[in-house]
Amino acid sequence: MTDFFADIAPLRHDPEGEGICFRHYDPDEMVMGKRMEDHLRFAVAYWHSFAWPGGDPFGGQTFQRPWFTDDMAGARLKAEAAFELFEILGVPFFCFHDADIRPEGASFAESRRNFEEIVDIFGQKMERSKVRLLWGTANMFSHRRFMSGAATNPDPDVFAWCAATVKTCMDATHKLKGQNYVLWGGREGYETLLNTDMGAELDHMGRFLSMVVDYKHKIGFEGTILIEPKPQEPTKHQYDYDVATVYGFLQRFGLEKEVKVNIEQGHAILAGHSFEHELALARELGVLGSIDMNRNDYQSGWDTDQFPNNVPEVALAYYEILRAGGFDTGGTNFDAKLRRQSLDAEDLVAAHAGAMDVCARGLKAAARMLEDDALEAPRRARYAGWETPEAQAMLGSDLDSIAARVEAEGINPEPRSGRQEILENVVNRYV
C-alpha cells in the first residue's frame, strides 16, 4: 500500500450522495440487455494519470508524486498506486505504454529488463483483482531518437529499435492477456518535403505494420491490432491523419481485415471532424475498434486531453457505438489528464468519477434514442425513395438508360427539408 490515496475509499453508486461518488454510473444497471460496465468497458490511462508531470510547452512540472524518481523503486511504487486507483474507481481495465511503467535503461536490454519486471508485478496484481488490460502499446515518440519518426524514420537503426520495442510490448500484452495492441504514430509524419521521401516512408510504415500482424499470429495473440489516427501530433503532415486516411493506408497494404482503429475525441476535432463522424465512418468501414474518451479546449485549438464533460457529445458518440453493436475487444479509455493546477490525489479520483458519470449519462441517452427509433425512423423516411424497384434498378443501370428515363418520365425533383433543427431538438430531449 502507498499513502497517496490513503484517505479515499472505493467509490459507490449513490445518486444523492455527498462528496466523490457515482451519481449516474452503476456498473450493474442494465442498458439494452447488457450491464453498463460491459457496455462502457472503462480503462484508466497509465501515462496521463501516473507518468505525466504536469508540464506544458510554457511551463515545467507542477505535480509532485512520490514515484517520480526515475528508478525501479519509483516504478514499483507507481504500480502500487495505480492499482489502488483502479480499486477505488472499480474500473475493469487499464492501458499503458512501455515508457510509462519503467525507467529508461542505459541500453535496450536494460530497458527491456526493467519493463519485464514491472509487467510481472502487473501480472501478480491482476491475479488478485478484477482489473484487466484493455491494451498495451509502445511510446515511440517522446525520446529524441524518434524525432524523425519511428517506422517512418530515415535511419534504419531506429526502425530496428522500434521493431524490437514493439515485439517486447506485444509479448507483454499477450502475457497479460490484453484485449488489444495499439500503435500510436505520434511522430509518423513530416515537417517539409525538402528532406522527406514520402513514398519510402509510407512503404516502411506499411511493412512495419505487416510485421506486427504477422507476429500477432505467430505468438497466438487473440486480441485486436489497432491504429490511432493522429492529425497533427506534432508534425504538420501525419500519415495517419483520420479514419479515412488510415483505412486507405490499410487497404493499400492488404491489412483492412487485420487492423482496426482506436479513435480519440480530441484527434477527431483536430482533424476537422466530429467524434461521431469518425465513429460512424469506422463503423461503416468495419474497422471500429476502441475509443479514447477525452475532449479538447475548443478555444486553444490544441490537443489538451481533458476529461469529458459534454453529455450531448458523448451521447452521440455512444449512439454510433451502439449502432455498431457495441464494443468487441475495445472499450472507453480515458486518455485524459488533470489540469496543471489540479495537484491532489482527490483531483485524480474526482476527474475519473465525473467522466464515468458523463459517459453513463451519454450511454443511457443513446440507448433510449435507439430504443425509441427517435433518429432512425426519420432517417429511414428520408431515404425511403431508394427502396422502390425503380431506384434499386437504377443502381445497376448506366447513364444512357437513366438519362432516357428522366426525359421519358418527366422527372423534375423538388427538394425536401433535411429537418436538421427538428432532429437536434429531438436529441436535446434525451440528453
UniProtKB/TrEMBL annotation:
It catalyses: alpha-D-xylose = alpha-D-xylulofuranose. SUPFAM superfamilies: Xylose isomerase-like. It is an enzyme of class 5 (isomerase). Mg(2+) 1 binds at E228, E264, D292, D335. One of its GO terms (biological process) is D-xylose metabolic process. One of its GO terms (cellular component) is cytoplasm. It is found in: Cytoplasm. InterPro entries: Xyl_isomerase-like_sf, Xylose_isom_bac, Xylose_isomerase. Binds 2 magnesium ions per subunit. The active site is at H97, D100. GO terms for molecular function: magnesium ion binding; xylose isomerase activity. Keywords: Carbohydrate metabolism, Cytoplasm, Isomerase, Magnesium, Metal-binding, Xylose metabolism. Belongs to the xylose isomerase family. This is Xylose isomerase. It comes from Salipiger mucosus DSM 16094.
